[in-house]
Design a protein that fits this description.
single chain; mainly alpha; Serine Threonine Protein Phosphatase 5, Tetratricopeptide repeat; 3 domains
């Protein structure tokens, strides 16, 4: 009989603890809901106070993670206080690396460091962290492309090429592979390596025959011919883009320039001036 009494008391205590925990969870959920409603309604400071009260009542766990993440979003998007936002995002990512808010927090960090802080070296590190630590998200190709684009911004075209090649090797089936191959063709032209640019162009046309980049990549090929002095071939290539190229004014200027060069015997204005100086000398 006494054993039964102990059992009943123990069961009652367990039920009481469970009920108390359930009430606390509902309280936290209600606070988070209220804070989110305040934020959506544009009442940023009110939302911040409520989210901070969640942190006081629950210093760790899923409610804390969400509160920290939302505080980061409010400071970033609502108040423009990006340094404070990054602090919150970093805290979320460190607190629960496998939690539901770690990946979006790290993504925000990388974007802020690149775009707002303009710290390109650190941005590369942050994007690489996304690739290495969050492979489950399935967005490695996008982050690899961002790394390549940062090197392009830095005018480090050779390293940009290396990063794009990694993308094509590691994530050849991703939607980013198409743009990567186009950018490689573009960079090779920028480096005045037209023979290699033609090789990537050929691969591109085979893999992506209906690409949105078709006009731009054909323009690059026409530019290669023009730079090589093959003016009539270049003109024909440019003319094939009439009516489809998205920068018609630029195309018209190119055609007029080539027509002028052909009329002058294929010489550019710069070459004509140089030959005149030589004659005078």
């Amino acid at each position: 009989m006494q054993t039964c009494r102990y059992y009943v008391c123990g069961l009652s205590l367990a039920l009481l603890i469970f009920a108390t925990a359930g009430c606390e969870n509902r309280r936290m959920e209600n606070l988070l809901q209220k804070a989110n409603e305040e934020w959506v309604g544009g009442r940023n400071h009110s939302a911040i106070e409520i989210f901070k009260s969640v942190l006081e009542k629950s210093p760790s766990g899923p409610y804390t993670e969400e509160a920290l993440f939302r505080l980061g979003e409010i400071h970033h998007f609502g108040l423009g206080e990006t340094t404070q936002a990054v602090t919150y995002f970093q805290e979320v990512a460190q607190m629960a690396p496998q939690g539901p808010f770690a990946y979006p927090a790290q993504k925000y960090i990388a974007e802020i460091v690149e775009i707002t802080f303009q710290d390109l070296e650190q941005a590369i590190i942050e994007y690489q962290k996304l690739i290495n630590e969050f492979s489950h998200a399935g967005e490695q190709a996008e982050h690899q492309y961002r790394i390549a684009s940062i090197y392009f911004k830095k005018h480090d075209y050779e390293q940009a090429m290396v990063e794009l090649e990694i993308l094509l090797e590691e994530y050849s089936e991703s939607t980013w592979a198409e743009e990567a191959l186009f950018r490689m063709t573009e960079i090779l032209y920028t480096l005045r390596r037209c023979d290699e640019s033609r090789e990537t162009y050929s691969k591109f046309r085979v893999r992506y025959p209906g690409s949105a980049y078709t006009g731009e990549i054909e323009y690059i090929m026409a530019s290669c011919l023009e730079d090589e002095g093959k003016l009539k071939l270049a003109r024909a290539r440019y003319k094939s883009l009439e009516g489809t190229y998205k920068y018609p004014a630029l195309l018209k200027m190119k055609l007029e320039g080539i027509a002028s060069r052909i009329n002058k015997g294929g010489k550019s204005k710069r070459k004509i001036r140089r030959s005149l100086r030589m004659r005078k000398g």
